[in-house]
Amino acid sequence: MVKRNGISQETLKLLACVTMLIDHIGAVLLPGALSLRVIGRVAFPIYCFLLSEGVCHTRSPKKYALRLGIGAILSELPFDLALFGRFTWNHQSVMITLLLGFFALETFRFARRQAWKPVFRWSFSCAAAALFFLLAEALRTDYGGAGILMIALFYCTRELPRRGLLRLVGLTALVYWQFPGGKVALLGASVPIELYALAALIPIGAYRGGKRSHSAAVQWAFYLFYPVHLTILYLLSLG
User: Fold this and answer.
1) Between these two residues, 76 and 5, which has the higher pLDDT value?
2) What integer pLDDT is reported at residue 183 of this predicted model?
3) pLDDT tens digits, residue range 107-140?
4) Do the beta carbons of residue 137 and residue 164 sit within 8 Å?
5) Domain ranges (residues) in the chain
6) HEC states along the chain?
7) Which residues contact 76 (CB under 8 A, 6 or more apart)?
8) CA distance 95 to 81
9) What angle do CA 152, 209, 72 make, to 5 degrees?
10) In 117-155, which positions are buried (b, 16+ CB within 10 angstroms) versus exposed (e)?
11) Which among 45, 157, 147 is positioned nearest to 108, based on CA atoms?
């Protein structure tokens, strides 16, 4: 359902791109600037949300998967060079996480279309989620299995009442379970950096469900932003 007031899909994508850029500037060029990494926590939940919405509204799942796949291929080397200084098989970019998440959601949608008893549909979907969770962990993708669960969380709650509260609880649980890493001070308390990802729920809650443009060029620009900005940051880090 499209809201009359709120932000468009393009605005939400732009916010994700900008906060991701800020995060990667901190990771690649200014590793001591934790404030940049804090701002960057907003990006990934927004991408997960946009994926869950895109899967439900795309007219061509094959083209959607193709765009994600091309983005993943183009992103892997820039991701490795920018963040690790060399090509490595030990870590895969977030584009692989999103691609696996796409296939997980397509599996969920396949189960919903079947004339199965609810218990069979839920069992099949849970098994699929577990499979893609383990695959993301095995491939060591950025955000790993927790990224798959975050994508599933946004998809499974999109038609539920009180989905904002459910997402808040779910994201908080994921952060404390999967991301126990660095902490920063907030109002005298030590807060896990990843917990700032909860701020993404504010613009997500304001999303109105519409597009300003159906241009293929605009779509590809958002996909190509990831490998292009990482390439630029890597080149700057060499200077």
Assistant:
1) 76
2) 63
3) 999 999 998 888 999 999 999 999 999 999 999 9
4) no
5) 9-92+158-238
6) CCCCCCECHHHHHHHHHHHHHHHHHHHHCCCCCHHHHHHHCCHHHHHHHHHHHHHHHCCCHHHHHHHHHHHHHHHHHHHHHHHHCCCCCCCECHHHHHHHHHHHHHHHHHHHHCCCCHHHHHHHHHHHHHHHHHHHHHHCECCHHHHHHHHHHHHHHCCCCCHHHHHHHHHHHHHHHHCCCCEEEECCEEEEHHHHHHHHHHHHHCECCCCCCCCHHHHHHHHHHHHHHHHHHHHHHHC
7) 92, 93, 95, 96
8) 15
9) 50
10) eeeebeebbeebbeebbebbeeeebbbbbbbbbbbbbbb
11) 157
Tokens of 98: 């999103």
- Amino acid symbol at 60: S
Task: Write the pLDDT tens digit of every residue in 138-168.
Answer: 999 999 999 999 999 999 999 999 999 999 9
Sequence letter at residue 167: R
Enter the tokens of residue 27: 């990771």
Integer Cα distance of 197 and 224 in angstroms: 23
Q: Quote the tokens at residue 20.
A: 């991701």
The rounded distance, in Å, linking the Cα atoms of 38 and 194 is 7
| 198: CB partners within 8 A, 6+ apart | 168, 171, 172, 175
Residue in the structure block whose two tokens are 């005298």:
188
